[in-house]
Amino acid sequence: MSEERTLLIVDDNEIFRERLARAFRDRRFEVRVAEGHAAAIELASDESPEWAIVDMKMPGKSGLEVVRDLKGIDPLTKIVVLTGYGSIATAIDAVRLGAINYLQKPADADDIIAAFERGEQPPMSGADHDYQAPSLARAEWEHIQRVLADCGGNISEAARRLDIHRRTLQRKLDKYPPRE
Q: Both 106 and 141 in a single domain?
């Protein structure tokens, strides 16, 4: 599948971006990375990638603007959007702008490659009807973990963003993660 495909990774989180780049290089991809809109557009203007992975939420211009502008440079670029805060509205916007798929973080290289492969197939082909949605408790726990990570581990700030009392958040964090 990966005969030296060119890949652009656009994410403001340096640790995630470099970890993902390393995983794709190990799979024989030619990888370039950008931390935001301006760098991504500059790299794509020099040499348009076959595939692009774009984070939705970044400082400055959003991932949706990156998708739009990458497609403006080369309509053949296949784009998968990653987000820690997925919603149906942003998924629809991303697809309308030209993304072939939309994934929730955390996603690893195998998940992303599968998303590219699914995105290149006709709609509803090979649809997985045995999908088990995570429990509500699991979804809540994952959301809390993402918000806490965004706050750099600051429980007071995370509680403010989640609009819950700090002690309530601490009690939720003391529990083990719920099973899928």
A: no
Q: 146 and 95, same structural domain?
A: no
Q: Do you find a cis peptide bond into 106, omega within 30 degrees of 0? A: yes
> Which tens digit of pLDDT belongs to each residue from 105-140?
878 899 899 999 887 766 655 555 566 677 788 788
Q: Residue 168 to residues 149, 155, 156: CA-CA distances in angstroms? A: 17, 10, 11
Contact 25, 31 (CB under 8 A): yes
Both 16 and 70 in a single domain? Answer: yes
pLDDT tens sequence across 93-114: 889 999 999 988 878 899 899 9
CA distance 76 to 133: 32
Closest by CA to 138, choosing from 180, 171, 86, is 180
- The residues near 87 (Cβ < 8 Å, ≥ 6 apart) are none
For residue 144, the domain's CATH number is 1.10.10.60
**3-state DSSP call for residue 7?**
strand
Q: Give how many domains the chain has, as a whole number.
A: 2
Q: Provide the residue range defining the domain that includes 146.
A: 136-174
Tokens of 134: 């995570």
CA dihedral 41, 42, 47, 52 (to 10 degrees): -30
